[in-house]
Amino acid sequence: MDDTIVAISTSMGVGAISIIRMSGNKSIEIANKLFKGKNLEKVASHTINYGYIISEDKIIDEVLVSVMKSPKTYTTEDIVEINCHGGITTTNKILELLILNGARLAMPGEFTKRAFLNGRIDLTKSEAVMDLIESKTESAREVAINSLQGKTFNMIENFRNKIKDLLSRIEVNIDYPEYYDIEIVTIDKIKEEISTMKKELQNIINESKNIKIIKNGIDTLIIGRPNVGKSSILNKLLGEDKAIVTDIEGTTRDIVEGEIILNNIKLNIIDTAGIRDTTDKIEKIGVEKSLSLIDKADLIIVVLNGSEKLTKEDKEILKKVNNKNTIVVINKIDLNQQIEKNQLQEFNIVETTTINDSGIDKLKDKIIELFNLEQIESKDYNYLTNIRQITLAEKSLKKLEDVEKGIKENLPIDMIEIDLKACFDLLGEIIGKTYSDEIIDNLFEKFCVGK
Ligand code: GDP
Fold this sequence. Notes:
This protein starts with a strand and ends in a 6-residue tail after the last helix. The protein is α/β, with parallel strands linked by helices. It contains 16 helices and 13 strands. The protein is 46% helix and 18% strand. It has helices spanning 27-34, 88-100, 110-117, 123-134, 138-148, 151-175, 187-208, 211-216, 230-238, 281-293, 312-321, 358-370, 373-378, 387-408, 413-431, 437-445, and strands at 5-8, 17-23, 35-36, 47-55, 58-68, 79-85, 104-105, 218-223, 256-262, 265-271, 299-305, 326-331, 348-351. The protein has three domains: 5-120, Gyrase A, domain 2; 138-213 and 386-432, Up-down Bundle (Four Helix Bundle (Hemerythrin (Met), subunit A)), CATH 1.20.120; 218-375, Rossmann fold, CATH 3.40.50.300. The strands form two sheets. The protein has a seven-stranded mixed beta sheet. Bound molecules: guanosine-5'-diphosphate (GDP).
Protein backbone atom coordinates (compact mmCIF):
# COMPACT_ATOMS: atom_id res chain seq x y z
CA MET A 1 0.00 0.00 0.00
CA ASP A 2 3.02 2.25 -0.35
CA ASP A 3 2.12 3.41 -3.82
CA THR A 4 -0.25 6.16 -4.83
CA ILE A 5 -3.37 5.04 -6.66
CA VAL A 6 -5.54 6.99 -9.07
CA ALA A 7 -8.90 6.46 -10.78
CA ILE A 8 -11.76 8.31 -12.36
CA SER A 9 -14.47 8.24 -9.71
CA THR A 10 -17.38 9.57 -11.75
CA SER A 11 -19.03 7.51 -14.48
CA MET A 12 -17.35 7.69 -17.87
CA GLY A 13 -19.31 9.71 -20.34
CA VAL A 14 -20.15 13.28 -21.18
CA GLY A 15 -21.13 15.23 -18.09
CA ALA A 16 -20.60 18.66 -16.56
CA ILE A 17 -17.90 17.52 -14.16
CA SER A 18 -15.63 14.52 -13.72
CA ILE A 19 -13.72 13.66 -10.57
CA ILE A 20 -10.33 12.01 -10.62
CA ARG A 21 -9.24 10.71 -7.26
CA MET A 22 -5.77 9.91 -5.97
CA SER A 23 -4.80 8.31 -2.67
CA GLY A 24 -1.36 7.67 -1.22
CA ASN A 25 1.57 9.51 0.28
CA LYS A 26 2.66 10.97 -3.07
CA SER A 27 -0.76 12.17 -4.20
CA ILE A 28 -0.27 15.82 -3.24
CA GLU A 29 3.24 15.92 -4.72
CA ILE A 30 2.06 14.32 -7.99
CA ALA A 31 -0.91 16.68 -8.35
CA ASN A 32 1.32 19.63 -7.59
CA LYS A 33 3.62 18.78 -10.51
CA LEU A 34 0.74 19.34 -12.92
CA PHE A 35 -1.07 22.13 -11.12
CA LYS A 36 -0.79 25.83 -11.81
CA GLY A 37 -2.22 27.80 -8.92
CA LYS A 38 -1.31 27.66 -5.24
CA ASN A 39 1.45 25.33 -4.13
CA LEU A 40 -0.63 22.29 -3.16
CA GLU A 41 2.09 21.02 -0.85
CA LYS A 42 1.66 24.15 1.25
CA VAL A 43 -2.13 24.55 1.32
CA ALA A 44 -4.15 23.61 4.39
CA SER A 45 -5.86 20.25 4.57
CA HIS A 46 -9.43 19.94 3.37
CA THR A 47 -9.28 22.91 1.03
CA ILE A 48 -10.49 23.32 -2.53
CA ASN A 49 -8.01 25.06 -4.79
CA TYR A 50 -8.74 26.72 -8.11
CA GLY A 51 -6.20 26.53 -10.95
CA TYR A 52 -5.13 24.75 -14.12
CA ILE A 53 -3.74 21.38 -15.08
CA ILE A 54 -0.71 22.07 -17.24
CA SER A 55 1.34 19.79 -19.42
CA GLU A 56 4.41 20.99 -21.33
CA ASP A 57 3.27 24.59 -20.77
CA LYS A 58 -0.12 23.89 -22.33
CA ILE A 59 -3.36 24.27 -20.38
CA ILE A 60 -5.21 20.95 -20.30
CA ASP A 61 -8.17 22.11 -18.20
CA GLU A 62 -9.40 24.60 -15.65
CA VAL A 63 -9.94 22.66 -12.43
CA LEU A 64 -10.78 22.63 -8.73
CA VAL A 65 -8.43 20.50 -6.68
CA SER A 66 -9.42 19.22 -3.21
CA VAL A 67 -6.51 18.45 -0.92
CA MET A 68 -7.27 16.21 2.05
CA LYS A 69 -4.38 15.23 4.24
CA SER A 70 -4.00 12.05 6.21
CA PRO A 71 -5.49 10.78 8.50
CA LYS A 72 -8.98 12.26 8.27
CA THR A 73 -9.77 11.01 4.78
CA TYR A 74 -11.71 8.18 3.14
CA THR A 75 -8.63 5.93 2.97
CA THR A 76 -6.82 7.62 5.90
CA GLU A 77 -4.07 8.44 3.36
CA ASP A 78 -3.44 11.77 1.63
CA ILE A 79 -6.19 12.21 -0.96
CA VAL A 80 -6.38 14.62 -3.87
CA GLU A 81 -9.52 14.98 -5.93
CA ILE A 82 -9.45 16.86 -9.19
CA ASN A 83 -12.75 18.25 -10.41
CA CYS A 84 -12.30 18.78 -14.11
CA HIS A 85 -14.70 19.47 -16.95
CA GLY A 86 -16.62 16.34 -17.80
CA GLY A 87 -15.98 14.53 -21.02
CA ILE A 88 -13.96 11.52 -21.94
CA THR A 89 -10.90 13.18 -23.51
CA THR A 90 -10.16 15.74 -20.78
CA THR A 91 -10.72 13.24 -17.97
CA ASN A 92 -8.58 10.58 -19.60
CA LYS A 93 -5.83 13.08 -20.40
CA ILE A 94 -5.56 14.16 -16.76
CA LEU A 95 -5.63 10.54 -15.60
CA GLU A 96 -2.84 9.73 -18.04
CA LEU A 97 -0.73 12.66 -16.84
CA LEU A 98 -1.13 11.61 -13.20
CA ILE A 99 -0.02 8.08 -14.09
CA LEU A 100 2.96 9.44 -16.05
CA ASN A 101 3.92 11.42 -12.96
CA GLY A 102 3.99 8.45 -10.61
CA ALA A 103 0.48 7.31 -9.70
CA ARG A 104 -0.77 3.81 -10.44
CA LEU A 105 -4.22 3.03 -11.84
CA ALA A 106 -6.37 1.77 -8.97
CA MET A 107 -7.92 -1.69 -8.98
CA PRO A 108 -11.69 -2.03 -8.52
CA GLY A 109 -12.67 -1.03 -4.99
CA GLU A 110 -9.09 -0.26 -4.03
CA PHE A 111 -9.88 3.03 -2.27
CA THR A 112 -12.43 1.27 -0.06
CA LYS A 113 -10.07 -1.67 0.43
CA ARG A 114 -7.46 0.76 1.73
CA ALA A 115 -10.04 2.34 4.03
CA PHE A 116 -10.68 -1.16 5.42
CA LEU A 117 -7.03 -2.25 5.66
CA ASN A 118 -6.10 1.05 7.27
CA GLY A 119 -8.77 0.41 9.90
CA ARG A 120 -11.10 3.30 9.07
CA ILE A 121 -14.10 1.14 8.27
CA ASP A 122 -15.01 -2.48 9.02
CA LEU A 123 -16.04 -5.04 6.41
CA THR A 124 -19.77 -4.49 6.83
CA LYS A 125 -19.33 -0.78 6.10
CA SER A 126 -17.16 -1.57 3.08
CA GLU A 127 -19.91 -3.81 1.74
CA ALA A 128 -22.47 -1.14 2.49
CA VAL A 129 -20.60 1.32 0.25
CA MET A 130 -21.12 -1.00 -2.71
CA ASP A 131 -24.71 -1.75 -1.74
CA LEU A 132 -25.47 1.94 -1.57
CA ILE A 133 -24.13 2.51 -5.07
CA GLU A 134 -26.08 -0.44 -6.42
CA SER A 135 -29.36 0.04 -4.54
CA LYS A 136 -32.35 0.18 -6.84
CA THR A 137 -35.15 0.75 -4.36
CA GLU A 138 -35.69 2.97 -1.35
CA SER A 139 -35.62 -0.03 1.02
CA ALA A 140 -32.32 -1.29 -0.41
CA ARG A 141 -30.87 2.20 -0.02
CA GLU A 142 -32.04 2.37 3.57
CA VAL A 143 -30.49 -1.00 4.44
CA ALA A 144 -27.19 0.13 2.91
CA ILE A 145 -27.05 3.52 4.58
CA ASN A 146 -27.89 2.00 7.98
CA SER A 147 -25.08 -0.46 7.58
CA LEU A 148 -22.75 2.29 6.43
CA GLN A 149 -23.67 4.21 9.57
CA GLY A 150 -22.45 1.24 11.59
CA LYS A 151 -25.71 -0.50 12.55
CA THR A 152 -24.58 -3.93 11.34
CA PHE A 153 -21.18 -3.43 12.91
CA ASN A 154 -22.67 -2.38 16.26
CA MET A 155 -25.13 -5.25 16.27
CA ILE A 156 -22.32 -7.80 15.78
CA GLU A 157 -19.89 -6.01 18.07
CA ASN A 158 -22.46 -5.96 20.90
CA PHE A 159 -22.96 -9.64 20.45
CA ARG A 160 -19.24 -10.35 20.48
CA ASN A 161 -18.86 -8.32 23.65
CA LYS A 162 -21.41 -10.51 25.39
CA ILE A 163 -19.45 -13.60 24.41
CA LYS A 164 -16.17 -11.97 25.42
CA ASP A 165 -17.65 -11.08 28.77
CA LEU A 166 -18.88 -14.63 29.37
CA LEU A 167 -15.51 -16.05 28.27
CA SER A 168 -13.59 -13.83 30.63
CA ARG A 169 -15.88 -14.72 33.55
CA ILE A 170 -15.40 -18.41 32.79
CA GLU A 171 -11.65 -17.93 32.64
CA VAL A 172 -11.49 -16.06 35.94
CA ASN A 173 -13.39 -18.92 37.53
CA ILE A 174 -11.02 -21.49 36.09
CA ASP A 175 -7.84 -19.57 36.87
CA TYR A 176 -8.71 -18.20 40.32
CA PRO A 177 -11.26 -20.56 41.85
CA GLU A 178 -9.96 -19.66 45.32
CA TYR A 179 -11.17 -16.04 45.09
CA TYR A 180 -14.36 -15.78 47.03
CA ASP A 181 -15.38 -12.35 45.84
CA ILE A 182 -15.69 -13.18 42.16
CA GLU A 183 -18.98 -14.20 40.65
CA ILE A 184 -19.21 -17.93 40.27
CA VAL A 185 -20.22 -18.83 36.76
CA THR A 186 -22.18 -21.97 37.22
CA ILE A 187 -23.00 -24.29 34.38
CA ASP A 188 -26.65 -23.32 34.78
CA LYS A 189 -25.75 -19.66 34.38
CA ILE A 190 -23.75 -20.40 31.21
CA LYS A 191 -26.62 -22.48 29.88
CA GLU A 192 -29.06 -19.68 30.49
CA GLU A 193 -26.86 -17.04 28.83
CA ILE A 194 -26.14 -19.25 25.82
CA SER A 195 -29.83 -19.94 25.36
CA THR A 196 -30.60 -16.19 25.30
CA MET A 197 -27.74 -15.52 22.87
CA LYS A 198 -28.94 -18.30 20.61
CA LYS A 199 -32.41 -16.82 20.42
CA GLU A 200 -30.99 -13.39 19.72
CA LEU A 201 -28.70 -14.61 16.95
CA GLN A 202 -31.45 -16.73 15.43
CA ASN A 203 -33.65 -13.63 15.35
CA ILE A 204 -30.97 -11.61 13.60
CA ILE A 205 -30.56 -14.37 11.01
CA ASN A 206 -34.30 -14.75 10.44
CA GLU A 207 -34.81 -11.04 9.95
CA SER A 208 -31.82 -10.83 7.66
CA LYS A 209 -33.20 -13.47 5.35
CA ASN A 210 -35.43 -10.82 3.83
CA ILE A 211 -32.29 -9.15 2.60
CA LYS A 212 -32.23 -10.95 -0.74
CA ILE A 213 -35.74 -9.71 -1.41
CA ILE A 214 -34.93 -6.18 -0.29
CA LYS A 215 -31.72 -5.96 -2.29
CA ASN A 216 -32.41 -8.02 -5.39
CA GLY A 217 -36.19 -8.16 -5.47
CA ILE A 218 -38.55 -11.08 -5.91
CA ASP A 219 -37.79 -13.18 -9.00
CA THR A 220 -41.24 -13.82 -10.37
CA LEU A 221 -42.14 -16.31 -13.05
CA ILE A 222 -45.37 -16.12 -15.00
CA ILE A 223 -46.14 -19.53 -16.33
CA GLY A 224 -49.03 -21.26 -18.07
CA ARG A 225 -50.35 -22.70 -21.31
CA PRO A 226 -50.32 -20.55 -24.45
CA ASN A 227 -53.16 -18.07 -24.82
CA VAL A 228 -54.35 -18.06 -21.21
CA GLY A 229 -53.36 -14.37 -20.88
CA LYS A 230 -49.80 -14.39 -19.45
CA SER A 231 -48.54 -11.57 -21.65
CA SER A 232 -51.67 -9.52 -21.01
CA ILE A 233 -51.18 -9.92 -17.24
CA LEU A 234 -47.50 -9.00 -17.55
CA ASN A 235 -48.39 -5.89 -19.55
CA LYS A 236 -51.01 -4.89 -17.01
CA LEU A 237 -48.45 -5.33 -14.22
CA LEU A 238 -45.81 -3.37 -16.07
CA GLY A 239 -48.24 -0.79 -17.36
CA GLU A 240 -46.76 -0.96 -20.83
CA ASP A 241 -46.97 -3.08 -23.96
CA LYS A 242 -43.77 -4.96 -23.44
CA ALA A 243 -44.90 -8.47 -24.31
CA ILE A 244 -46.57 -9.15 -27.63
CA VAL A 245 -50.18 -10.13 -27.12
CA THR A 246 -51.77 -12.15 -29.90
CA ASP A 247 -54.35 -14.86 -30.12
CA ILE A 248 -52.05 -17.17 -32.06
CA GLU A 249 -50.86 -19.77 -29.59
CA GLY A 250 -47.19 -19.75 -28.75
CA THR A 251 -46.25 -16.16 -29.64
CA THR A 252 -44.28 -15.38 -26.49
CA ARG A 253 -41.30 -17.51 -27.33
CA ASP A 254 -38.64 -15.58 -25.56
CA ILE A 255 -38.52 -14.86 -21.92
CA VAL A 256 -39.64 -11.29 -21.38
CA GLU A 257 -38.27 -9.45 -18.41
CA GLY A 258 -39.61 -6.42 -16.66
CA GLU A 259 -39.51 -4.80 -13.26
CA ILE A 260 -42.12 -3.20 -11.08
CA ILE A 261 -41.80 -1.80 -7.58
CA LEU A 262 -44.33 -3.06 -5.06
CA ASN A 263 -44.19 -1.56 -1.55
CA ASN A 264 -40.61 -0.52 -2.19
CA ILE A 265 -39.62 -4.05 -3.20
CA LYS A 266 -38.63 -4.86 -6.75
CA LEU A 267 -40.51 -7.56 -8.61
CA ASN A 268 -38.39 -9.03 -11.42
CA ILE A 269 -40.98 -10.49 -13.72
CA ILE A 270 -40.36 -13.12 -16.33
CA ASP A 271 -43.06 -14.14 -18.78
CA THR A 272 -42.26 -17.50 -20.26
CA ALA A 273 -43.09 -19.22 -23.46
CA GLY A 274 -46.44 -20.95 -23.10
CA ILE A 275 -46.10 -24.42 -21.74
CA ARG A 276 -47.53 -27.12 -23.99
CA ASP A 277 -46.39 -30.18 -25.83
CA THR A 278 -44.63 -28.81 -28.82
CA THR A 279 -42.51 -29.98 -31.70
CA ASP A 280 -41.44 -26.50 -32.88
CA LYS A 281 -37.72 -26.44 -32.05
CA ILE A 282 -37.41 -22.80 -31.02
CA GLU A 283 -40.56 -22.92 -28.98
CA LYS A 284 -39.44 -26.14 -27.34
CA ILE A 285 -36.28 -24.48 -26.06
CA GLY A 286 -38.45 -21.76 -24.54
CA VAL A 287 -40.74 -24.29 -22.86
CA GLU A 288 -37.83 -26.21 -21.39
CA LYS A 289 -36.25 -22.99 -20.20
CA SER A 290 -39.41 -21.88 -18.44
CA LEU A 291 -39.78 -25.19 -16.64
CA SER A 292 -36.15 -24.99 -15.53
CA LEU A 293 -36.79 -21.51 -14.13
CA ILE A 294 -39.37 -22.82 -11.65
CA ASP A 295 -36.70 -23.88 -9.21
CA LYS A 296 -34.91 -20.54 -9.28
CA ALA A 297 -37.96 -18.30 -8.88
CA ASP A 298 -39.05 -16.79 -5.57
CA LEU A 299 -42.63 -16.49 -6.79
CA ILE A 300 -44.50 -18.42 -9.46
CA ILE A 301 -47.67 -17.06 -10.97
CA VAL A 302 -49.54 -19.84 -12.75
CA VAL A 303 -52.09 -18.47 -15.17
CA LEU A 304 -55.13 -20.54 -16.07
CA ASN A 305 -57.96 -19.78 -18.45
CA GLY A 306 -61.15 -19.68 -16.39
CA SER A 307 -63.33 -20.09 -19.46
CA GLU A 308 -61.92 -23.56 -20.10
CA LYS A 309 -61.73 -26.77 -18.12
CA LEU A 310 -58.35 -27.65 -16.62
CA THR A 311 -56.24 -29.40 -19.26
CA LYS A 312 -53.55 -32.03 -18.96
CA GLU A 313 -50.89 -29.32 -19.36
CA ASP A 314 -52.46 -27.16 -16.62
CA LYS A 315 -52.39 -30.10 -14.23
CA GLU A 316 -48.82 -30.87 -15.24
CA ILE A 317 -47.72 -27.31 -14.42
CA LEU A 318 -49.60 -27.29 -11.11
CA LYS A 319 -47.88 -30.51 -10.16
CA LYS A 320 -44.46 -28.99 -10.91
CA VAL A 321 -45.04 -25.86 -8.86
CA ASN A 322 -46.58 -27.56 -5.88
CA ASN A 323 -45.01 -26.56 -2.58
CA LYS A 324 -43.49 -23.43 -4.07
CA ASN A 325 -44.45 -19.84 -3.42
CA THR A 326 -47.25 -19.95 -5.93
CA ILE A 327 -50.23 -17.83 -6.85
CA VAL A 328 -52.74 -19.37 -9.22
CA VAL A 329 -54.39 -16.76 -11.38
CA ILE A 330 -57.71 -17.73 -12.91
CA ASN A 331 -57.87 -15.33 -15.84
CA LYS A 332 -60.65 -14.38 -18.27
CA ILE A 333 -63.34 -14.30 -15.57
CA ASP A 334 -65.26 -11.91 -17.82
CA LEU A 335 -66.13 -14.98 -19.92
CA ASN A 336 -68.39 -17.88 -19.06
CA GLN A 337 -66.52 -19.96 -16.42
CA GLN A 338 -65.74 -23.63 -17.00
CA ILE A 339 -62.74 -24.20 -14.73
CA GLU A 340 -63.03 -26.75 -11.90
CA LYS A 341 -62.10 -24.56 -8.93
CA ASN A 342 -62.55 -27.40 -6.46
CA GLN A 343 -59.36 -28.94 -7.85
CA LEU A 344 -57.37 -25.84 -6.90
CA GLN A 345 -58.21 -25.62 -3.22
CA GLU A 346 -54.63 -26.00 -1.99
CA PHE A 347 -53.43 -22.91 -3.87
CA ASN A 348 -53.54 -19.16 -3.32
CA ILE A 349 -56.07 -18.12 -5.94
CA VAL A 350 -56.68 -14.77 -7.56
CA GLU A 351 -59.39 -14.31 -10.17
CA THR A 352 -58.63 -11.74 -12.84
CA THR A 353 -59.55 -10.32 -16.13
CA THR A 354 -57.22 -8.17 -18.12
CA ILE A 355 -60.01 -6.07 -19.59
CA ASN A 356 -59.79 -3.78 -16.54
CA ASP A 357 -57.41 -3.16 -13.59
CA SER A 358 -59.33 -4.62 -10.67
CA GLY A 359 -58.03 -8.16 -11.04
CA ILE A 360 -54.44 -6.98 -11.34
CA ASP A 361 -54.78 -4.98 -8.13
CA LYS A 362 -56.00 -8.14 -6.39
CA LEU A 363 -52.92 -9.95 -7.71
CA LYS A 364 -50.61 -7.23 -6.39
CA ASP A 365 -52.33 -7.38 -2.98
CA LYS A 366 -51.85 -11.15 -2.89
CA ILE A 367 -48.12 -10.76 -3.57
CA ILE A 368 -47.82 -8.15 -0.81
CA GLU A 369 -49.62 -10.53 1.57
CA LEU A 370 -47.61 -13.61 0.57
CA PHE A 371 -44.24 -11.92 1.08
CA ASN A 372 -45.29 -9.82 4.05
CA LEU A 373 -44.15 -6.75 2.14
CA GLU A 374 -46.06 -4.33 4.34
CA GLN A 375 -44.14 -5.59 7.33
CA ILE A 376 -40.79 -5.55 5.53
CA GLU A 377 -41.40 -1.97 4.48
CA SER A 378 -42.16 -0.70 7.96
CA LYS A 379 -39.17 -2.44 9.56
CA ASP A 380 -36.14 -0.77 10.98
CA TYR A 381 -33.60 -2.05 8.51
CA ASN A 382 -31.11 -3.41 10.98
CA TYR A 383 -29.82 -6.43 9.19
CA LEU A 384 -26.93 -8.55 8.14
CA THR A 385 -26.79 -7.36 4.59
CA ASN A 386 -25.54 -10.21 2.44
CA ILE A 387 -25.11 -13.97 2.15
CA ARG A 388 -21.49 -13.79 3.36
CA GLN A 389 -22.60 -12.20 6.61
CA ILE A 390 -25.64 -14.46 7.04
CA THR A 391 -23.61 -17.63 6.41
CA LEU A 392 -21.05 -16.60 9.04
CA ALA A 393 -23.84 -15.83 11.50
CA GLU A 394 -25.33 -19.27 10.84
CA LYS A 395 -21.95 -20.87 11.51
CA SER A 396 -21.70 -18.86 14.75
CA LEU A 397 -25.14 -20.09 15.78
CA LYS A 398 -24.00 -23.65 15.13
CA LYS A 399 -21.11 -23.06 17.56
CA LEU A 400 -23.54 -21.87 20.23
CA GLU A 401 -25.50 -25.07 19.67
CA ASP A 402 -22.25 -27.01 20.15
CA VAL A 403 -21.73 -25.18 23.44
CA GLU A 404 -25.21 -26.25 24.57
CA LYS A 405 -24.54 -29.81 23.52
CA GLY A 406 -21.21 -29.79 25.34
CA ILE A 407 -22.91 -28.66 28.54
CA LYS A 408 -25.54 -31.37 28.19
CA GLU A 409 -22.86 -33.99 27.73
CA ASN A 410 -20.91 -32.70 30.73
CA LEU A 411 -17.82 -31.89 28.68
CA PRO A 412 -14.98 -30.16 30.53
CA ILE A 413 -15.37 -26.40 30.66
CA ASP A 414 -12.30 -25.74 28.49
CA MET A 415 -13.89 -27.75 25.66
CA ILE A 416 -16.96 -25.55 25.95
CA GLU A 417 -14.72 -22.51 25.93
CA ILE A 418 -13.21 -23.61 22.59
CA ASP A 419 -16.64 -23.56 20.91
CA LEU A 420 -17.47 -20.24 22.46
CA LYS A 421 -14.20 -18.77 21.20
CA ALA A 422 -14.87 -20.19 17.74
CA CYS A 423 -18.25 -18.45 17.77
CA PHE A 424 -16.54 -15.21 18.78
CA ASP A 425 -14.04 -15.53 15.90
CA LEU A 426 -16.71 -16.32 13.31
CA LEU A 427 -18.64 -13.21 14.32
CA GLY A 428 -15.35 -11.35 14.02
CA GLU A 429 -15.10 -12.46 10.40
CA ILE A 430 -18.40 -10.72 9.64
CA ILE A 431 -16.93 -7.35 10.54
CA GLY A 432 -13.44 -8.21 9.32
CA LYS A 433 -11.63 -8.51 12.65
CA THR A 434 -10.17 -11.69 11.22
CA TYR A 435 -9.91 -12.15 7.47
CA SER A 436 -7.92 -13.86 4.76
CA ASP A 437 -6.38 -12.05 1.79
CA GLU A 438 -8.43 -14.22 -0.52
CA ILE A 439 -11.72 -13.17 1.03
CA ILE A 440 -10.73 -9.53 0.92
CA ASP A 441 -9.58 -9.73 -2.70
CA ASN A 442 -12.80 -11.46 -3.72
CA LEU A 443 -14.91 -8.95 -1.95
CA PHE A 444 -13.35 -5.81 -3.36
CA GLU A 445 -13.06 -7.19 -6.89
CA LYS A 446 -16.80 -6.69 -7.22
CA PHE A 447 -16.49 -2.97 -6.63
CA CYS A 448 -16.26 -0.42 -9.39
CA VAL A 449 -12.97 1.29 -10.18
CA GLY A 450 -12.68 4.61 -8.41
CA LYS A 451 -14.59 3.56 -5.28
P1 GDP B 1 -50.39 -15.75 -23.46
O1 GDP B 1 -50.16 -16.57 -24.69
O2 GDP B 1 -50.69 -16.61 -22.29
O3 GDP B 1 -49.31 -14.76 -23.19
O4 GDP B 1 -51.75 -14.94 -23.72
P2 GDP B 1 -51.96 -13.45 -24.25
O5 GDP B 1 -51.76 -12.48 -23.17
O6 GDP B 1 -51.19 -13.29 -25.49
O7 GDP B 1 -53.53 -13.49 -24.52
C1 GDP B 1 -54.13 -14.41 -25.43
C2 GDP B 1 -55.47 -13.89 -25.87
O8 GDP B 1 -56.38 -13.84 -24.77
C3 GDP B 1 -55.43 -12.48 -26.45
O9 GDP B 1 -56.31 -12.40 -27.53
C4 GDP B 1 -55.93 -11.61 -25.30
O10 GDP B 1 -56.53 -10.43 -25.73
C5 GDP B 1 -56.92 -12.52 -24.64
N1 GDP B 1 -57.11 -12.25 -23.22
C6 GDP B 1 -56.14 -12.06 -22.27
N2 GDP B 1 -56.70 -11.82 -21.05
C7 GDP B 1 -58.02 -11.85 -21.21
C8 GDP B 1 -59.16 -11.66 -20.32
O11 GDP B 1 -59.04 -11.42 -19.10
N3 GDP B 1 -60.41 -11.80 -20.87
C9 GDP B 1 -60.61 -12.07 -22.19
N4 GDP B 1 -61.85 -12.16 -22.62
N5 GDP B 1 -59.57 -12.23 -23.06
C10 GDP B 1 -58.31 -12.12 -22.59
